[in-house]
Amino acid sequence: MSTICCIIGTRPEAIKMAPVILKLKERGLSCFVLATGQHTDLLTQALRTFNIMPDRDLSIMRERQSLDYITSAVLTKAGEALDDVKPKVVLVHGDTTTTFASALASFYRKIPVGHVEAGLRSGNLYLPFPEEANRIMVDKLATFWFAPTEIAKNNLLKEGCDPSRIWVTGNTVVDALMMVKGLKGEPEFLKEKLPPHVPLLLVTVHRRESWGKPLESVCEALIEILKSFPRLWIIIPMHKNPLVRETWQRYLSDIPNVILCDALEYDDFVWIMNRSTLILTDSGGIQEEAATLKKPVLILRDVTERPEALSEGTALLAGREPSKIVELALKVLLDDDFRERLLSKSSSPFGEGRAAETIVDILMQYLNANEHCLGE
Questions:
Q1: What is the pLDDT of residue 374?
Q2: Is 208 annotated as catalytic?
Q3: Considering Cα of 63, then 66, then 69, then 74, what sign does the dihedral take?
Q4: 70 CB contacts (<8 Å, ≥6 apart)?
Q5: Active site annotation includes 327
Q6: What angle, 0 to 180 degrees and rounded to 10, lies between the N-to-C axes of helices 11-26 and 172-180?
Q7: pLDDT (tens digit, 9 = 90+) per residue, 236-250?
C-alpha cells in the first residue's frame, strides 16, 4: 500500500492531525509520522495523549528561533526525510511554518500534498502573522484541499483551486476533542488550587502579534475584570516563549485568584475548557473547540479567519483594547440573558467529529483508483 507521510511540528498540528493518523492506521494504510520538532516538549506531550510516536523526529527547535531558521531547517531536513521515505502523498495541517516548509519540500519532489484545514483566510496578510501567508502559499502548492467549512471551500474556489479536489470535511479538532472529552476528571494540579463551583476564566495567548504591548493590555484587562468580579478565578497555561511567560508573571503572579501554569496535557486542557465560564484567547483552534463545547469565547485579535465562530458559534471579537475586553467579558459573565443568547446560536459550524474518516476515505479512493496519475 502506498505510504502517506503526515508531517507535524507544533502542538496544534499534533492534536489536529492525530485523528487522521489514527484513522489511517486503523484502515491499514502505511503511515509515516514525521515530526519536525518546531515544538519539542509541547509536540511530544500532545502526541502522548493519543498514544502516537513519531517515526522520525527532526528536532529542529532551538531557543528564540527565528522564522528564517525554522523555514530553512524544516525545508532542508524534511526534504532529506522525504527522499528516504518516498511517500506517495504528504499530509500537512493548517498554517504553521512547518506546514509551509514541508509543503514546499514536497512540491520540490513533485509529491502530492494534502492540506488539512485548507482555505482559511483572514483577508489580512499580516494577521495572523505569519500564518495567513503560510496558509495561502500551502494552498497554492497543494493537490488535495480538505476544507473544514463551506466558507473555506468558497475561499479556495475564488482563488482558482480545482473544484474536483476540494472537499468540505469538518475540522479534525472536533474529532480530537470528542476523543478525549470525559476521559479524565479534574487535573491533579488544580485539586488544591481551584475552589469548587467558582466561575472560571481560561486565558491563552501565544501569537507573535500578541507579544509585548498587546499582551500587557490583556493583563491590564484581566486585573480590571477581577476588580469588578472578585469571585472569578483565572487560569492561564503559559506558552513556552519567555517573552510571553515574563509578561504574565510580571503582571499577574502575585494575584491570588490567578493560576499560572505550564502548558497542559490536551485531555486536561479539554477538561478546563469544559469547566470554564468564559474563554479569552488568540488561538484559532480554541474558537472551534469552544463552539463545539458551547462555551463563550472572546477572540483577542482584530480579525479571525474563522468567521463561522462569530456568525454561528460562541465567539465575540474583542481585539486587544483593555476597555473592550473588560466590557465584553463582564457582559458575558454577569448578564445571563446575553450569555444565553450567545450560546443558543451555536450550531457546530466546524463539523460533527467525522473529519478524519472523510479525509481517509478520500485518500483511499485516490490512491486506489488514480495512483498512477497523481502528481502529473
A1: 44
A2: yes
A3: positive
A4: 38, 60, 97, 98, 101
A5: no
A6: 80
A7: 999 878 888 999 999
| Distance from C-alpha of 7 to C-alpha of 29, rounded to nearest angstrom | 16
Clarify whether 95 is annotated catalytic. Answer: yes
pLDDT digits (tens, 9 = 90+) for 175-196: 999 999 978 889 988 988 999 9
- Whether cis (ω within 30° of 0) applies to the bond prior to 130 is yes
Which residues, other chains included, contact 333 with Cβ-Cβ below 8 Å and sequence gap of 6+?
199, 201, 225, 229, 232, 277, 278, 339
Residue 206 annotated among the catalytic residues of the structure: yes
Catalytic residue among 11, 39, 115, 117: 117
| Whether residue 239 lies in the annotated active site | yes
* Residue keyed to cell 486503523: 26
> Choosing from 11, 39, 95, 289, which is the catalytic residue?
95
Residues 36-83 pLDDT 10s = 988 778 888 889 999 999 999 998 887 778 999 999 999 999 999 999
The residues near 355 (Cβ < 8 Å, ≥ 6 apart) are: 19, 146, 148, 169, 170, 171, 172, 174, 175
Q: Tell me which of 93, 115, 239, 320 is the catalytic residue.
A: 239
Q: Rounded mean pLDDT of 112-117?
A: 98
Q: Give SS3 for 8.
A: strand
Mean pLDDT of the chain: 92
Identity of residue 63: E
DSSP structure string for 229-253: -TT-EEEEEE-S-HHHHHHHHHHHT
Higher pLDDT, 113 or 63: 113
Instruction: Determine whether 265 is an active site residue.
Output: no
Relative orientation angle of helices 172-180 and 285-293, to the nearest 10 degrees? 60
pTM over 0.85, yes/no: yes
Mean pLDDT of the region 103-110: 98
Find the length of the chain. 376
Confidence at residue 34, expressed as pLDDT on a 0 to 100 scale: 97
Catalytic site residue from 27, 56, 208, 339: 208
Active-site residue, selected from the candidate residues 11, 121, 135, 206: 206
